[in-house]
Write a structure and sequence with these properties.
The complex is a heterodimer. Chain A is α/β, with parallel strands linked by helices. Chain A has 6 helices and 8 strands, in the order βαβαββαβαβαββα. In chain A, helix 3 runs parallel beside helix 4. Chain B is α+β, with helices and mostly antiparallel strands. Classes of the chains: A alpha/beta, B alpha+beta. At the A-B interface, strand 3, strand 4, helix 5, strand 8 and helix 6 of A face helix 3, helix 6 and helix 8 of B.
């Protein structure tokens, strides 16, 4: 378990040096997107109007207020990643996204892509949107504003974290490890509860 | 006493939505603190520390705890000594929820189920969700507001078992539901369990169980014991905070129950995330409003 403060954009080598349970803090820029945005890119064939190469993507759910031509933060939090599974490998392969930030984790297709392209999944604390909002210094840009609150957001962040490396480029997933341990423990828990069929 | 002003209810309904989103109930804070103190997993410890920091920032900077403003649920209890026009109460609560959303403002998390059009007001067909109950002794109107976030609501389960499948089927279903939910409902929160009734009532009972303060026990010893037993079982799974491992997967299991059909054995699970948000108001005829949790 090591601690890292990293500045964007990230390189492959940096990503490959991370292991599950490490803690990461990010300085620089991260890009927010979610369901509608990813459908717009991959299912409807729209090229993202911004270069994502080397930058992390966060599964965001922002509440913003437009004042003049600036976007002010009301509250910015993170949504469940599992819904975004099928879009994650192509984000890494086609657009060079380095690190996906979210909650709830991703599945094996993404884990495999992380091994291939040198990427990782950084788990944020779901529900802790106040901390996240403070650590986002500014919403620098909103691409495809007509999709708001599911547009692409360019966030400038400072000491954004701690994020737990929950899936790494070495084929390890902390979610898998926890799930395996739970399955190992279940028979004994069933028996303690008087459950016959396990 | 002058005429009762329904504007008081409207203002309270607005205030309750905003309060619930910002001020975490003291029983939830204490339960999180107790959980942190006994936690042994280092990743989990770090997660708790972020949670406490988040609660503090929400308190000191009047920020929302979580960006998911949820679906607005109002549980209304009308006292016998508080004669009132129910239709006007409903209209006032609806207007309060709408005003909270556009006047604060915050994200409207509601949408049309087919067209996915977002009304941006948190109100519309079937919204806000309002439940009605009555208290023969009270001389006030009580409104409990719960903004129900989707991370946890998406994990809801219900099953109609048969009588022959017995209590063990109920226990296994609750445990398996929590295991299947894993990291998604932002553990450690509250596990609401409904037992008995019909298919619709059992799901409501599970939701009503989430409205109780953390640490409260069902007054019936049979169900209180079952709550304790399931709590221990769930916390020994090792799912932990945010599903990343640890000894705290739930802060509490709450069960609410009802009589059911002789052929049935229904059970439902409704999970609440660690920000187990709720806000309560008591309103008296003269217009006095008291806020609590």
């Amino acid at each position: 378990m090591a601690n890292y403060t990293l500045t964007t954009p990230f390189g492959e080598k940096t990503m490959r040096s991370l292991h599950i349970r490490d803690l990461v803090w990010i300085n620089g820029h991260i890009f927010g997107m979610r369901d509608r945005t990813l459908i717009h890119i991959f299912d409807e064939g729209h090229e993202p109007p911004v270069d994502l190469n080397g930058f992390p993507v966060i599964h965001t759910a922002p509440s913003l207020k437009k004042v003049g031509d600036k976007w002010e933060k009301i509250i910015i939090g993170t949504t469940t990643s599992t819904r975004m599974e099928r879009f994650s490998p192509p984000l890494m392969e086609k657009y060079g996204v380095r690190a996906i930030i979210g909650k709830g984790g991703l599945y094996h297709g993404s884990l495999y892509a992380m091994q291939n392209f040198g990427d990782c999944y950084l788990a944020i604390v779901g529900g802790a949107a106040a901390v996240e909002t403070i650590q986002i210094e500014e919403v620098e840009d909103v691409y495809w504003p007509e999709l708001h609150p599911e547009a692409i957001y360019k966030f400038r962040v400072k000491d954004f974290g701690p994020l737990t490396v929950a899936m790494d480029s070495h084929g390890k997933s902390l979610y898998d490890e926890v799930r395996k341990e739970v399955q190992k423990r279940l028979p004994e828990i069933y028996s303690k509860l008087g459950i016959k069929a396990a | 006493m002058g005429r009762f002003s329904y504007r008081v209810v409207e203002d309270a309904a607005k205030e309750l939505y905003i309060r619930a989103l910002k001020v975490l109930p003291p029983d939830v804070r204490e339960a999180l603190k107790r959980a942190y103190e006994k936690e042994t997993n280092l990743t989990a410890k770090t997660i708790f520390e972020t949670i406490f920091r988040n609660i503090e920032i929400a308190d000191t900077q009047s920020m929302l705890i979580c960006q998911d403003t949820g679906l607005p649920i109002y549980m209304v209890t009308i006292g016998s000594k508080f004669s009132v026009d129910g239709a006007r109460i409903k209209a006032a609560i609806t207007e309060g929820a709408r005003r909270a959303t556009i006047e604060h403002p915050f994200r409207c998390s509601s949408t049309h189920p087919i067209t996915r059009e977002n009304p941006q007001t948190s109100v519309g067909e079937g919204l806000p969700i309002i439940y009605w109950d009555f208290d023969p002794d009270a001389d006030y109107l009580e409104i409990l507001m719960i903004p129900k976030g989707s991370g946890s609501e998406m994990m809801s389960t219900m099953k109609m078992f048969t009588p022959a499948e017995g209590l063990q089927a109920i226990k296994k279903f609750v445990l398996d539901s929590v295991v299947a939910a894993g990291a998604n409902p932002c553990p450690p929160g509250i596990i609401g369990v409904g037992i008995g009734g019909t298919s619709d009532l059992v799901m409501f009972l599970a939701k009503k169980a989430l409205a109780r303060s953390v640490g409260s026990r069902n007054p019936d010893p049979l169900f209180a014991k079952l709550e304790e037993e399931l709590e221990e079982a769930i916390n020994s799974t090792g799912i932990g905070p945010m599903g990343l491992g640890g000894i705290n997967t739930t802060l509490a299991v709450h069960i609410e129950w009802a009589y059911t059909h002789i052929t049935q054995n229904p059970v439902a699970v409704n999970i609440q995330c660690w920000p187990a948000r709720r806000a309560r108001a008591r309103i008296w005829k003269g217009g006095r409003v008291e806020y609590s949790f």
